[in-house]
Amino acid sequence: MGIGEGASSHPTALRQFNEGKMIFSRHSVLKRGCSTWDKQQMPQEEFQSRVNAARTEMARQDLDALVVYGDNYSFAELCYLTNYFPKVRGGIAVVPKSGAISLLLNIGSRDVPFAKTLTWVEDVRASNQVGRDGAELLKEKGLTRARVGLLDSGKGFPLPQLEELKGGLPQVEWQPCHSMLQRALLQKSARELVTLRNAGHVLSAICSGAKNFIKQGRKEFEIIADIDRLARDKGVEDIRILAGEKRLQPPSFRMTASVGDHWAVYFAIQHERYWVEAGRTYILSADPKFQSAYQKAQETVAQMASQLTPGNSIAAIDETARKQLGEFYATASIYGLGNGIGLNQWEAPFLSEDDARQVGSPSVGATALNENMTLALRVTFETEGRLILFGDSFEVTPNGPKSLFR
After folding, report:
1. What's the CATH fold of domain 17-30+186-403?
2. Phi and psi at residue 95, in whole multiples of 5°?
């Protein structure tokens, strides 16, 4: 199955550039990349501290347990607590206020041993009816009359399964907690930053390696297949690509057009659970207009990144882009100028309420920058009827911005 083929029908997953704001790339139904757990890089004690913090918040909200849903499209909170990410379909983590956590995953029983290699959670169970079996799991834990929080920030819990879960526990008091971990996801720990930098180094190598494949006259789908293979060889868990000369499109075997004198590419990879993104325009001619436009995009991103200092307003990023881009700002804002990045490809902080709303987030997440936030910034505009794109991923440090690619 090629990248993007058989993509999910998730309402945000299929939105394209011509429809409105933000970059939305198709996601694979099956994550078919590398799947391992580097316990030295992300040891169990990292997750234990996260669970302890979550339980502190649960106590504040008087919750007896928390049910966390995640799937292969949106898995941030599930992964944040357990290190597990679904490769296909979804599952839940049941976090009681004390005692062992359980994972109930929509996988076959033969896949449980492999699933256990990706998580520190010992109680991992298979299910093809997560709602029904989830209700039984909560009963087993003595939670039939409990106050239970439900965390599903991606709004992906299939409604029939969710109704089965709640219907099987008529005396449970359900409390929506979809934003419970948003603040925790905003600021990355030291280990998370190391993981993000590693992912940035991998994506940087992919962007550089892509130059060897992007040649005039080659078919677009052939180039994307080569980039995909390069990314898999470098150990990515997932990759999203949009590419084109006049319009960014998801990969498809129908992309039979040949590359001309330039090609714009949006890359996003998931590596060791964490996402980073980049935008590049590969100019295959000596046309000074394209060269000048691409330089302007790079300089604008650099100016936007200069605003990434602790305490600065997040709105300053957009204001800087507006000043730098002038007449190109309207087009660039349509494509989205940036957002937080981490366990989610698009996460808080968002640059505007509209951007947050488009990915289903209840808020921008923060209005001021803090140390250890990570953001993806990008500039996309048209010149001479051709698309120009440049973007990078950054971390906020006490000394200002630092590219995750260096």
Report:
1. Creatine Amidinohydrolase (3.90.230)
2. -110, 100
Above 80 in pLDDT, residue 18?
Answer: no
DSSP for 175-206, written as a single string: EE-TTTTHHHHHS--HHHHHHHHHHHHHHHHH
Beta carbons within 8 Å of 400's beta carbon, 6+ residues apart: 306, 308, 309
| Res. 17 pLDDT band, cuts 50 70 90 | very low
229: its two tokens? 């293979």
pTM for the whole thing?
A: 0.92
Can you tell me whether residue 64 is helix, strand or coil? coil
- Residue (of 321, 290, 310) closest to 372 by Cα position: 310
Give 210-260 as a 3 state SS string.
HCCCCCCCCEHHHHHHHHHHHHHHCCCCEEEEEEECCCCECCCCCCCCECC
List, for residues 219-238, the tens digit of each pLDDT value: 999 999 999 999 999 999 99
Domain boundaries, the chain: 17-30+186-403, 44-180
Q: Which helix (H) or strand (E) holds 71?
A: strand 65-71
Tens of pLDDT, residue by residue over 246-295, are: 989 888 766 678 899 999 999 999 999 999 999 999 999 988 999 999 99
Distance CA 120, CA 360 (A): 29
**For residue 46, is pLDDT > 60?**
yes
Domain 44-180: CATH architecture, name and number where available:
3-Layer(aba) Sandwich (3.40)
Q: Which residues pair with residue 338 across a beta bridge?
A: 377
